[in-house]
Amino acid sequence: MTQTHTDAQSPTSPVRARTGEFEWAFPAIRGVQAGREYYVTMCPLRLIPRMFLFDEEELTAEMRAQRTLNKGRVPEIARYIVENSDSYVFSALTASVDVDVRFDPLATDGPSDRVGTLVIPMSARFVINDGQHRRAAIQQALAENPALGDESIAIVLFLDIGLERCQQMFADLNRYAVRPAKSIGVLYDHRDEMSALTRLVVLRSPFLRDLTEMETSNLAQRSRKLFTLSALHAATKALLDGIEESNFERRVDLASKYWELVIGQFPEWDQVFNREITAGEVRRDFIHTHGIVLHALGKVGNSLLSQGKGVRSWSPALKKLRDVDWHRASSTWEGRAVIGGRVSKSAANVLLTTAAMRAVMGLPLPPDEQRAEDVFGGGN
């Protein structure tokens, strides 16, 4: 990208010539979508805050081309860039420009006529159609690490044909966007230590490896899996929360031993593993494979691990889980883990389910679970 000053030039693309103004000059590729030209270019990160201004917060929704910036998301994205400056990945920003541009191709015919220089007056106004949170995060990251300014990000640039078109572009770009399942996020995340730890716990256990769905976070009715990786991740995170053990392998071993001991308390799980009954039957009739119970098992396990890190010290309390009626239809769980016949994993239900398990295991209730119990008991 260079800055140029033109006195008089003949346009080589169908836009009017400009004289006497400063311009941006970007290396670019020209393409066509829906019969309209658009351009793909690269832009140094240091120019992003200068070129792509965001000043629409005071406008009503119908007068904007974007949703309001969620400022709570920006620090997290900026931290991702700064902490992973040698491995971060950003997809292209999509933007519109509100002036005529000039495209100077390398050649007048053949494939090279789609490659050239995109010239845009510096007075142009750019509107981000997709990526305003990335743009704000880039600005914050540059303040923390100015050296990032020489790196670049791809820009897909459309010619602006008014507010209505920009709003439609935003709607279209987000129409089919689907957030990936949490399970596959855990499976593919090699930066997050807890994700790596959970993967190892599952992969090192023949039982968990066989019965854990690694990709989706919802199990189909006919799935032969009992658990999802995302549910085990949340449960293992609760299990090791605040546990003073810095060695990664020892943390993996600690979690593995705990979950292997838990597995032994649920005969239905073993029956599924041995193909004696189906996973669908167990998920339908019992609640102990659902995320809420796994999370609760992680929370009670955290208390056991805090008291002692030996399997022998956990076993007596965990064996009491065999005496619990885990049927979905049990009155024990109505309003606590099951509402109207459906398992509910709200924060309040997790507290109530954990409290019920602690009571059976003879463990004291922490203040948050005691408050939830008091409210639940008062309502009944």
UniProtKB/TrEMBL annotation:
Stored InterPro entries: DGQHR-contain_dom, DNA_S_mod_DndB
CDD domains membership: dndB
Signal peptide location: none
A Pfam family assignment: DndB
Family annotation (NCBIfam families): DGQHR, DNA_S_dndB
Protein's recorded name: DNA sulfur modification protein DndB
Native source species: Mycobacteroides abscessus (strain ATCC 19977 / DSM 44196 / CCUG 20993 / CIP 104536 / JCM 13569 / NCTC 13031 / TMC 1543 / L948)
Lineage per the UniProt record: Bacteria, Bacillati, Actinomycetota, Actinomycetes, Mycobacteriales
